[in-house]
From TrEMBL:
Keywords: Cell membrane, Disulfide bond, Glycoprotein, Ion transport, Membrane, Transmembrane, Transmembrane helix, Transport
Domain called Major facilitator superfamily (MFS) profile: residue spans: 22-627
Family: Belongs to the organo anion transporter (TC 2.A.60) family.
TM spans (from-to): 21-40, 60-80, 87-105, 157-183, 195-222, 242-266, 317-339, 354-376, 388-408, 512-536, 548-569, 600-623
Membrane topology listed for this record: Multi-pass membrane protein
Identification of the protein by name: Solute carrier organic anion transporter family member
Species for this entry: Rhinopithecus roxellana
Length: 670
């Protein structure tokens, strides 16, 4: 007998260690997938500038990840539970690595990046030559030569990034539904929230690493090593700067492939965590095997698909939760995707600084919130109804705090000829641009080239030529322009490359914005685990994998794909000046109307999120009357009674096939 108990204990420890190994492996998978995703989101601005495409097209490229995901999500979620889930997750990680590698290919197939400029990099120039566009290593000149126009590489190379993102989306498909369902199936119900909280923590560590990597890459010039960076006339704060976006994708590819290895050595099934009796273990294993064999032999692998879909679609709490998720994802996807651009345009920071600040201020509070949320659920054994109230009211608190962001703003950069007159008076943005004035009408300046300079009067100009500058000293980024006839100052008029800084007040507003963002992130993440428990507990155990997959599918189709596209199109509508390509075509936007940009970036998500509280309140009302299938989940069973204390259960039609009690059981319950 002692030998048998020892064997049982050894078996239990071995199974428990395998569950812990899966927990570690799936956490690493979440780290790698979110690392790739956050890096992609952070590089959208760099991709926009590299290929000279509008923000709406960048949004479509970003949403293509969701296209790849939704192509497989429903079937992977359902069929994945019938197959070897760890191996499917491992294959998905390998495919993600392939997608990341494809996204880096354009850099190796394209020529060197050229940015528009009116200034040669050859050093001290005469008063006439620097006002005219001469041949130089970084000069981009408009041309009418058809042969030169056809050689532009910006047109279709972005398709590689598009296809790579689709492939990455296909690879990520099995990780979430199969990973969560595997934990739910073999972990104790009271441990499940903590385990999911740990996994979600991994989903925060990944973006933190991704943002730090993106910050580094965005600060390194895209063609570093093949060009002399000392000759550059732009800095990372310039809207023409393109960082080494391709380098991070190669790193993401390697990380994803390495993450896949452990899953190929994990078992298909495990005994339920906590089953310490040998008879229970054997019975559990035999029942699982027999159930699978019966399904395969009698009905085939698709037997339960349509009934499960019908059951989920008739579950009002589940459907309302999907509605809430779709509305909120429309808001969050848009905010997260374009947050670096918002900080760049609103507060005058470089892409590298914006990405770094997002990682430092936002991700640690989210990580702490996930852990605390999981611990609270475990320690206090929060019920599903209590979890729904926690998630709803915390989200409402975070939503009210969000409105303070409208108060921490900066004014538009004063650019003469766009939003400011040559006398320094702000002008109506939509009355037409007065690019030329008496001070530069004879300079023969290009009117569309974006090569801004900052005058010593605190105003920015489209170019040194339009500022009326006649001479220059210095080289590269240190070049200084002098004798500028359009810069009205009491002393010597001069200008330096780049837009003027927004000032110390704007820096202070940025700090307030980041603090508010950190507080909102913490409160939101604190409510995330209780909210996710409502989703998992409102379904039967056999429906969870498909239910999570269907939930993910709906958020991809109705939020992940369209949100970046229409949000990007709205941002394009606020553009004040577009870049110019060699053939005179419009490139990427160089400067936006900060006020309108702010109203779109903050206002549209506020309206969307506000509307999501209506279905949330309906869920709270339903939960007061309904008994959820997963509430009695400690034993892995669902209990839906037809009568309780002589009253009909008002929710009996919410779920498919309620358990029918026999006469003796019914009398006992009554």
């Amino acid at each position: 007998m002692g030998e048998t108990e020892k064997r049982i204990e050894t078996h239990r420890i071995r199974c428990l260690s395998k569950l812990k190994m899966f927990l570690l492996a799936i956490t690493c998978a979440f780290v790698s997938k979110t690392l790739s995703g956050s890096y992609m989101n952070s590089m959208l601005t760099q991709i926009e500038r590299q290929f000279n495409i509008p923000t709406s097209l960048v949004g479509f490229i970003n949403g293509s990840f969701e296209i790849g995901n939704l192509l497989l999500i429903i079937f992977v979620s359902y069929f994945g539970t019938k197959l070897h889930r760890p191996i499917m997750i491992g294959i998905g990680c390998v495919v993600m690595g392939l997608g990341c590698f494809l996204k880096s290919l354009p850099h190796f197939l394209m020529n060197q990046y050229e940015y528009e400029s009116t200034v040669s990099v050859s050093g001290n120039l005469s008063s006439n030559s620097f006002l005219c566009m001469e041949n130089g290593t970084q000069i981009l000149r408009p041309t009418q030569d058809p042969s030169e126009c056809t050689k532009e590489v910006k047109s279709l190379m972005w398709v590689y990034v598009l296809v790579g993102n689709i492939v990455r989306g296909m690879g990520e498909t099995p990780i979430l539904p199969l990973g969560i369902s595997y934990i739910e199936d073999f972990a104790k119900s009271e441990n499940s929230p903590l385990y999911i909280g740990l996994i979600e923590t991994g989903a925060i560590i990944g973006p933190l690493i991704g943002l730090l990597l993106a910050s580094f890459c965005a600060n390194v010039y895209v063609d570093t090593g093949s060009v002399n960076t000392d000759d550059l006339t732009i800095t990372p704060t310039d809207t023409r700067w393109v960082g080494a976006w391709w380098f991070g994708f190669l790193i993401c590819a390697g990380v994803n492939v390495l993450t896949a290895i452990p899953f190929f050595f994990l078992p298909k099934t495990l005994p339920k965590e906590g089953l310490e009796n040998n008879a229970d273990i054997i019975k559990n294993e035999n029942e699982d095997k027999q159930r699978e064999e019966d399904k395969k032999e009698k009905y085939g692998i698709t037997k339960d698909f349509l009934p499960f879909m019908k059951s989920l679609s008739c579950n009002p709490i589940y459907m309302l939760f999907i509605l809430i998720s779709v509305i909120q994802f429309n808001a969050f996807v848009s905010m997260i995707s374009f947050m670096p651009k918002y900080i760049e345009q609103q507060y005058g920071k470089s892409s590298s600084d914006a990405i770094f600040l997002i990682g430092i201020y936002n991700l640690p509070p989210i990580c702490i919130g996930y852990i605390i949320g999981g611990l609270i659920m475990k320690k206090f054994k929060i019920t599903v109804k209590q979890a729904a109230h926690i998630g709803c009211w915390l989200s409402l608190l975070e939503y009210l705090l969000y409105f303070l962001s409208f108060l921490v703003t900066c004014e538009n950069s004063s650019v003469v000829g766009i939003n400011t007159s040559y006398e320094g008076i702000p002008q109506d943005l939509y009355m037409g641009n007065n690019i030329f004035a008496n001070c530069n009408v004879d300079c023969n300046c290009p009117s569309k080239i974006w090569d801004p300079v900052c005058g010593n009067n605190g105003l920015s100009y489209l170019s040194a030529c339009l500022a009326g500058c006649e001479t220059s000293i210095g080289m590269g980024i240190n070049m200084v322009f002098q004798n500028c006839s359009c810069i009205q100052t009491s002393g010597n008029s001069s200008a330096v490359l780049g837009l003027c800084d927004k000032g110390p007040d704007c820096f202070l507003m940025l700090q307030y914005f980041l603090i508010l963002s950190a507080m909102s992130s913490f409160i939101y993440s604190l409510a995330a685990i209780p909210g996710y428990m409502v989703l998992l507990r409102c379904m039967k155990s056999e429906e969870k994998s498909l239910g999570v997959g269907l939930h993910t599918f709906c958020t991809r189709v109705f939020a992940g794909i369209p949100a970046p596209i229409y949000f990007g199109a709205l941002m394009d509508s606020t553009c004040l000046h577009w870049g110019t390509l060699k053939c005179g075509e419009s490139g990427a936007c160089r400067i936006y109307d900060s006020t309108t940009f702010r109203y779109i970036y903050l206002g549209l998500p506020a309206a969307l999120r506000g509307s999501s509280f209506v279905p949330a309140l309906i869920i709270l009302i339903l939960l007061r009357k309904c008994h959820l299938p997963g509430e009695n989940a400690s034993s892995g069973t669902e209990l839906i009674e037809t009568k309780v204390k002589g009253k009909k259960n008002e929710c009996k039609d919410m779920y498919q096939k309620p358990t029918v009690l026999n006469d003796d059981e019914l009398k006992t319950k009554l």
